[in-house]
Design a protein that fits this description.
2 copies of one chain form a homodimer.
Chain A lengths: L4 H10 L4 H8 L4 E5 L4 E3 L7 E7 L2 E6 L5 E7 L18 E4 L3 E7 H10 L1 H27 L2 H18 L7 E3 L4 H8 L3 H13 L4 E3 L2 E3 L3 H8 L10 H7 L1
Antiparallel strand pairs in A: 1-7, 2-6, 3-7, 4-5, 4-6, 8-10, 9-10
Helix pairs in contact in A: 3-4, 5-8, 6-7
The structure holds a DNA duplex.
DNA sequence: CGATTTGTTGACTAATATCAAACTGTGTGG
DNA sequence: CCACACAGTTTGATATTAGTCAACAAATCG
């Protein structure tokens, strides 16, 4: 499969694209790079000249405070371009790191600029992606701001499931997600110890389980309910939502 | 002053715009509306046909969870277009409300589309604004995720000060900000009681004060330090930063 | 296989929430 | 002009959630 297919699929899950639009994305020169888990792909303060399409594996965006505490801002999955904003924001204000072995496709900003200048619809689709990104951040604020520990975890997994559905990476309410409890803690604004206990409670109640990089939503209904999850903020089109059924 | 001047000033604090670009923004038809404090301007679920430029006053974006708790996601100041994303995300995923009497300028999406189709630089400037918006959300996640109560409050005010500087609304380290402690609590993910106590501590230490809609940063250095504030994530240009001096 | 990372447990502590009441200021109608 | 109503702030007492520390177990890796 051509590396950009996953991107086209993702864009189409959010925006209608004509075949010519898709072809223009397919024509993008992509520089493939494989990285092992825990690689820092781009760092706060960098001025990247290209953006990074996730083809395989998982990445996370994170900020480290002056006091040395880390907050994970987002997890990213195949089809995402987590640093698309560097097209217009020249300085990275956070880190991008691989949390698993990953296949990345780097696309030069010059080529992206050429694309958005010639294909208005694609430009809008990409703009839209960055806006959905922002919508996800907003929900993340709600998560760490007002939800209690178990809701936070449930919501995070519910969101991940919903986004993975759009790229066909959920089977049987199970999906790969190679995350440590300490990473979960940094994402949810909790301590690892507390994450561990919340996880055990969910396991005991037969709600969900995380084992060896595999998330199992034993009772999806309970997960969605516990997280207070409403997928509206992901702004997926009905096409994408149909996958779910 | 023409209503779009404040927008042009804001855009120029983040992006270089030629005089023709500025003129194209100035030519936008703007429908002015005055609203009293506590008006809900746009609501979650709405499909607005225009976006809202803040000309005077303050607004906030907020989400309400299924359990009835409210999280404020952002405060907005004159020059901001807090619902610009509705150009591409048709359904509002949160509320926009006036927290003070406000003068708003509504700009039809049709006119904005016409503008971005004809003025590439302006389109990029607007896209950039939405990306800065996202960068602010990211920092907000850090704020509620890892900082303790007093850092959160200090950071919020430090950010507000920095953004108000760019539109010339800070004098003598004081600025108007008509917010209740309960709104602060909803923004910071804290209880009103705790906000009240943190505020009192800052007052007692001669760091800052909030009285009758007026924020006074008695010791700006201490505020910035307490919040661990680094303005980099606001992605202002050096032009904007020069105002600070 | 040892070494390191990750997960688990228990005891204790700290930060912040909750609840309820009282207090302050400000505007309003009699 | 006063009294009241209301919104916002302040206070004290108590409860709860989640954090910290420290030790150990289990899994993973070179």
């Amino acid at each position: 499969m051509h590396p950009t297919e996953i991107l086209i699929r993702k864009l189409r899950s959010d925006t209608h694209l004509s075949d010519e639009d898709a072809a223009s994305v397919r024509a993008l020169p992509v520089h493939i790079r494989e990285v092992p888990a825990d690689t820092t792909i781009v760092q706060q303060g960098d001025h990247p000249k290209s953006s990074c399409l996730i083809i395989k594996g998982f990445t996370a965006r994170a900020k480290v405070t002056e006091t040395g505490r880390r907050q994970i801002l987002a997890f990213h999955i195949p089809g995402d371009v987590p640093d698309l904003q560097t097209l217009f924001l020249k300085t990275m204000d956070h880190d991008l790191l691989a949390i698993s072995d990953a296949t990345l496709g780097f696309i030069d900003h010059a080529d992206l600029f050429r694309l958005i200048d010639t294909r208005r619809t694609v430009a809008r689709a990409l703009w839209r992606e960055t806006l959905i990104d922002a919508a996800v951040f907003r929900e993340w604020i709600v998560n760490v701001g007002v939800r209690d520990a178990s809701s936070r975890l449930a919501h995070l997994l519910a969101e991940l499931r919903q986004r993975l559905l759009a790229v066909g990476l959920v089977a049987d309410e199970e999906f790969q997600f190679p995350v440590t409890q300490s990473e979960l803690a940094d994402a949810l604004g909790l301590s690892t110890v507390h994450v561990n206990r919340v996880l055990q409670a969910f396991r005991a109640q037969g709600v969900l389980d995380i084992r060896k990089n595999l998330v199992t939503l034993v009772d999806v209904g309970k997960v969605l309910a516990a997280g207070g999850f409403d997928p509206m903020y992901l702004h997926q089109t009905s096409t994408a939502l149909r996958h779910e059924a």
